Amino acid sequence: MEATYEFVSIRRDGHVAELVLDRPEAHNALSTAMAKEIARATAELAADRGVRAVVLSSASEKAFCVGADLKERNSFTDADLMRQRPHFRAAFGGVLNLPMPTIAAVHGYALGGGFEFALSCDLIVADETAVVGLPEVTVGVIPGGGGTQLLVRRVGYSRAADLIFTGRRVEIAEAERLGLIDRRVPAGEDRKVALELAARIADNSPVGVRNAKRALRYGADVDLAAGLDIEDGAWRATAFSGDRKEGVAAFNEKRKPDWPGE
Q: What is the pLDDT of residues 167-177, one digit of tens each?
């Protein structure tokens, strides 16, 4: 029986799944209930071997996600905040640890936890309306959804420090220049382009793509020799798969591969 959700939705088109942040009346402000659903939804997608790429998008016209729901937190005790913390970590970790490639389709505000969701994806497609940032220090906290770790890996220490210490918002031209996004598209085109990119990825060997992602992620923070060993393990896991046999056969027979995905 397929899971039902209130604050997110999952759409499937062939081998591409779209995880939609669906709390538009609050510009997808992340509440405890929404965090729980994101954790459940990402677990569902991770277990689905038919999904080869995931797009993380928004049902709000004005925002991708504005971060934590500060209205909910306004009445929190310290104990309430600690009870919420595991659910937030599970939500961000659920996106970050999806085994297939992930693409954030960003428009409008992607602030705080919203930008951290985008950073948790492999690629970020953003339209001309996008405004990104990690403003947590302006409200007395720090990024806690992976922002301090993911941003420095994306743009380097000094640029990450500038953005996190000031808490400033960054519009699309600067975001592109700093490398905060990967593809800049016209207003209203973020979801369309992200889905097209996901479909192109999904045409390739699912075993190959998943193992390539594994090598990229695990090899990023080790020395070169260790990284090459990680790559070799991922290569072996792919080279002796059904996908490799089908890919070689399809190339020689001049046809599109029918990937077994095993």
A: 999 999 999 99
Structure tokens at 237: 């896991």
Yes or no: say if 155 and 133 are a contact pair by the CB < 8 Å rule: no
- Domains of the chain by residue range: 8-202, 206-252
Residue 68 annotated as catalytic: yes
Among candidate residues 94, 108, 112, 113, the one labeled active-site is: 113
Q: Which contiguous run of DSSP H or E holds residue 182?
A: none
Torsion of CA 147, 148, 154, 160, to 10 degrees: 110
**Beta strand 8-13 with 183-185: parallel, antiparallel or unpaired?**
unpaired
* Residue environment code for 224-247, b if the CB has 16+ CB neighbours within 10 A, otherwise e: eeebeebbeebeeebeebebeebb
Q: Say if CB 78 and CB 126 are below 8 A apart.
A: no
Superfamily of domain 8-202: 2-enoyl-CoA Hydratase; Chain A, domain 1 (3.90.226.10)
Of the candidates 97, 33, 107, which has an alpha carbon nearest to the alpha carbon of residue 8?
33
Say what the pTM is.
0.95
Please say if 156 is a catalytic residue: no
Residues 73-128: pLDDT tens digits?
999 999 999 999 999 999 999 999 999 999 999 999 999 999 999 999 999 999 99
261 flagged as catalytic: no
Catalytic residue status for 171: no
